[in-house]
Amino acid sequence: MFRGKVIWITGASSGIGEALSKALSKEHCNLILSARRENELKRVKDECDNSGNIRVLPFDLANYQSMDEIVSKAISFFGKIDMLINNGGISQRSLIIETAISVDKKLMEIDYLGTVALSKALLPHFIENKSGHFVTVTSLMGKFSSPYRSSYCGAKHALHGFFDALRLEHVQDNIKVTMICPGFVNTNISRNALIGDGTKLNKQDNATQNGLEPEIFVERMLKAIKKQKFEAYIGKGETKGIYLKRFFPKLLHRVILKSAVR
Ligand SMILES: NC(=O)c1ccc[n+]([C@@H]2O[C@H](COP(=O)([O-])OP(=O)(O)OC[C@H]3O[C@@H](n4cnc5c(N)ncnc54)[C@H](O)[C@@H]3O)[C@@H](O)[C@H]2O)c1
Questions:
Q1: What backbone phi and psi angles, to 5 degrees, belong to 106?
Q2: How many angstroms does the Cα of residue 4 sit away from the middle of ligand 1?
Q3: Which pLDDT score is estimated for 51?
Q4: CB 118 within 8 A of CB 67
Q5: Is any ligand 1 atom within 6 A of the Cβ of residue 91?
Q6: If you compute the radius of gyration of the chain from its CA atoms, what whole number of angstroms results?
Q7: Which InterPro entries match (predicted)?
Q8: 111 — phi, psi (to 5°)?
């Protein structure tokens, strides 16, 4: 499925995006790697197989007003894009009462508006080609919520609203949408998470550290993409929350109250 395709990955400089880049580089496809730090993207590229078929395109998802220019650049590398993997993002760890509204805004700008603006800028290309696949990495926190993550849950839930609509509007254009909802994955996500005053948590939390290794997560993610699943929930026991939310929401509420850690 991936052979010969042009696949654009955001958040490729670390964690899930880095593991994904390395796994896909073995699949004989052409890759475009994006995140903010060019040096880190070049490092990932150099550590990939077939690095001749890889381009780096640094940009900041928070600059969501300038996505047309970024998309034109991306298309110019290989003449087309087949798949955009919207993986870049940040998290948050703080109670609502101690979280500045500027933190909610930042999460919405990076996780929601940046991803939506990039996808909207690429959409005409997919429509013209009568083909394209948007893969968006949200979170189990995009399907149900937990304390200390209100801004993150808001932004990730919103992505489901947007991409479910996109999937419905573009069936006739053969455009696919796959939403990937990770549980805990052992990456830098909690270190980079914002606390209430907008500074970084700078600490690895236990749940994240004990989560799936990015390479294992990515294996499962690629299977879900190949099957063109609408949604995939990938993690350990925490994925049970999806079914509790649907069938026993009050039980889920009690479970999360008991188990939520800061
Ligand atoms: N690790 C987990 O437990 C977990 C759980 C659920 C969802 N996720 C999601 O997985 C995705 C990848 O995160 P990760 O776990 O690999 O974390 P990570 O911090 O290791 O990687 C995040 C990536 O996003 C990029 N990024 C952050 N802000 C950006 C910006 N303003 N502009 C451009 N790029 C930016 C970073 O540079 C990095 O490449 C995120 O969307 C995250 O919300 C992770």
A1: -65, -45
A2: 26
A3: 79
A4: yes
A5: yes
A6: 18
A7: NAD(P)-bd_dom_sf (IPR036291), Sc_DH/Rdtase_CS (IPR020904), SDR_fam (IPR002347), SDR_family_member_7 (IPR053011)
A8: -75, -40
| pLDDT reported for residue 153 | 98
* CATH numbers and ranges of domains, the chain: 6-259 (3.40.50.720)
Copy the structure tokens of residue 143. 């399907």
Work out the angle between the directed axes of helices 115-129 and 150-169 (0-180°, nearest 10).
10
> What is the rounded CA–CA span in Å between residue 261 and residue 116?
30
Mind telling me the catalytic residues? 152
For residue range 191-222, what is the model confidence (pLDDT) as tens digits?
999 999 999 999 999 999 999 999 999 999 99
Complex ipTM = 0.99
Give the DSSP letter string of 80-132: --SEEEE-----B-B-GGG--HHHHHHHIIIIIIIHHHHHHHHHHHHHHHT-E
- The pair of three-digit structure tokens given for residue 128, joined into one six-digit string: 């013209």
87 Cβ inside 6 Å of ligand 1: yes
Q: Number of H helices and number of E strands within the chain?
A: 10, 7
**Token pair of 181, please?**
């909802």
39, 63, 86, 87, best to mutate for ligand 1 pocket (most atoms within 8 Å of CB): 87
